[in-house]
Amino acid sequence: xxxxxxxxxxxxxxxxxxxxxxxxxxxxxxxxxxxxxxxxxxxxxxxxxxxxxxxxxxxxxxxxxxxxxxxxxxxxxxxxxxxxxxxxxxxxxxxxxxxxxxxxxxxxxxxxxxxxxxxxxxxxxxxxxxxxxxxxxxxxxxxxxxxxxxxxxxxxxxxxxxxxxxxxxxxxxxxxxxxxxxxxxxxxxxxxxxxxxxxxxxxxxxxxxxxxxxxxxxxxxxxxxxxxxxxxxxxxxxxxxxxxxxxxxxxxxxxxxxxxxxxxxxxxxxxxxxxxxxxxxxxxxxxxxxxxxxxxxxxxxxxxxxxxxxxxxxxxxxxxxxxxxxxxxxxxxxxxxxxxxxxxxxxxxxxxxxxxxxxxxxxxxxxxxxxxxxxxxxxxxxxxxxxxxxxxxxxxxxxxxxxxxxxxxxxxxxxxxxxxxxxxxxxxxxxxxxxxxxxxxxxxxxxxxxxxxxxxxxxxxxxxxxxxxxxxxxxxxxxxxxxxxxxxxxxxxxxxxxxxxxxxxxxxxxxxxxxxxxxxxxxxxxxxxxxxxxxxxxxxxxxxxxxxxxxxxxxxxxxxxxxxxxxxxxxxxxxxxxxxxxxxxxxxxxxxxxxxxxxxxxxxxxxxxxxxxxx
Length: 615
Prior knowledge:
Elements (H helix, E strand, L loop, with lengths): L3 H9 L8 H9 L4 E4 L8 H9 L3 E5 L3 H13 L4 E4 L5 H12 L4 E5 L10 H4 L6 E4 L14 H4 L1 H7 L5 E5 L4 H11 L5 E4 L7 E7 L5 H12 L3 E5 L3 H14 L5 E4 L5 H13 L4 E4 L12 E6 L6 H8 L9 E7 L2 H11 L11 H23 L4 H8 L12 H7 L13 H20 L4 H9 L4 H5 L16 H13 L3 E4 L9 E4 L1 H7 L24 H4 L27 H21 L3 H4 L2 H4 L1
Parallel strand pairs: 1-6, 1-7, 2-4, 2-5, 3-4, 5-6, 8-13, 9-11, 9-12, 10-11, 12-13
Antiparallel strand pairs: 14-15
Helix pairs in contact: 2-3, 14-15, 18-19, 18-22, 19-21
């Protein structure tokens, strides 16, 4: 039987497990109930996706956001993993098709929102479905003590029972001890294994700026944004502030994309603004807490709270959307005492949305609990101790902070706030990125195709589609032959996360997305801009094939970057001899001609001709 690491590499194109992933997966495969608390970016989704893929049968995944479901399902399909979704975004005919698949014994991952279990066309199935795995993402939504309580989540224990009490994994990034106890109790988990991998995010720089006058916040925000590079999120407590700041920032920074988001917008506007933020480099989202759950944009360099949130759990989760790629990022609170009154207004209105479900005593308990939580946020904003340590202590994480860069620690050590360190990517990595982009560009010339097709072409696959579309005649065919197709797919998804490419549905077609370069991606491909620093870890997905010897590559080294049918033999180049003055001049003129051709064809220069060929 293949080792789990073999499955990880062959199915998901990843090199190795992150901390605790293997242990969680082994317990899930042993049919134990599991509660998994992992920080943002630690790889929670793999903890149920891999078990669902290596064992037969149906796995049901409960997810709170339609956009998050769509992203995960498409990524699984790109890896040739069976996955489906069922939610209100699907037309009725598509919903009927998915239900028919379930009735016929669908095997794979089915993503649903919690409301789906009570839909008239789905309820009759509950007693017949017998999933091998029940996965609940954002499980803190189950608890009324949590910061993002949703009534539909609290009934998932009943749903689990109707499904035959399958092995269950509940996952969240934020859960205090009382919330963890609620999750276990309400889901009726049987002697669950509880994994808490820690709450420390060393790459995040926590800061708080106390501002006496509310009107001074806007100027402080403008000063911050003038110095903060990259993408970021600005959280506000009210829709009114979102609308005001969106107008202010668009006026102050006309060249910077700004996307507002709150529950007052219709669903299409919210979806469009979220998608635009995800796909645009250096974009700023101005949003209420309605935005962000499940956001998977790895290059968020800053999160600013224009108003304080109601709990430290909410702050930790929202601030944690910065720095998912592990690079330094800033989390800044702009604190004024007036913010307290806004949160107290929300507390006074607890229970009004569901008056029939809560009696007066329960409402009072929830309000008292919320006030205590708010006091902790105020303490965090005013503290003179390490903010990072304060967060760990709040979540009962016993880790000791070292080398902290929060504003309190920096002030005590006499360190100033220097500009962010510039990250220069190695030439080997830049070339790899441009090869991936070139593959997308050249395949799109033949038509509209998805990630899997681009990976097949770059990997030099031999199949019916490649032959029918004559992809093997493209200059990029086999360019990355030294890498497994799965690994190329994983790298293409990282390129999309970085904003260099985008998946979109063709006109009139749903859920069969094609891949295209963004304007930013074209600029990087032809060398007008460097690749973004968030791709610094991309070589971790590669097999380091650039270091392989000609013998290891074999007699048909497609990984060397040319059409293998055009150059079937290995040519070992000797070190170049120095060029004399005349030869150097000719060489530079050739390079200039090559650059002009590359710009005309919107290709990297090396796809026209390598320096070694020129020489």
